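Morning F.,

Quick status update on the modeling queue. The single chain you submitted on Monday has been processed. Sequence for confirmation:
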Amino acid sequence: MKRPFSILLAALLPAAASATEHRQGPLALPAVIHMLGKGQPVAVTVDLSLCSAVPNDAKPSKTRGGLRINAFRLTDDGTLAFADEHMTIDLDGKPIVQFLRYKVHPDNSAQFSMTVFSLPAYEQKGTTVEFNCAMDRGLSFFPTR
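Structure tokens below.
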């Protein structure tokens, strides 16, 4: 019994340490853009249960996650865009790659989308899943190390 608890504790310690990085609360979009422009690290969290599925009759999601922004694009209209891609295994145990796209507009509205491709063929699986979110309502930014 002690060994499984030790493994769980070891797995949770990094998460607890990173949680302390977010003490000052979520950042506003101008602060996010300023920090990214200075090369400072910023993390984003997403809680799709607080977002609206597109189209409206699409299945809602309770998925939550986050990442550190490694690359971004800022357009002339003030929209911040960034993406993430990673490989994982689907429910059938087959390898896939997920492409996650984020767009945040100056009015604090945001869009999140996910497109999945099978590997190694890179054939799209299903349709792209899309959600409308907002700053501090499904999408939050935090300074990180």
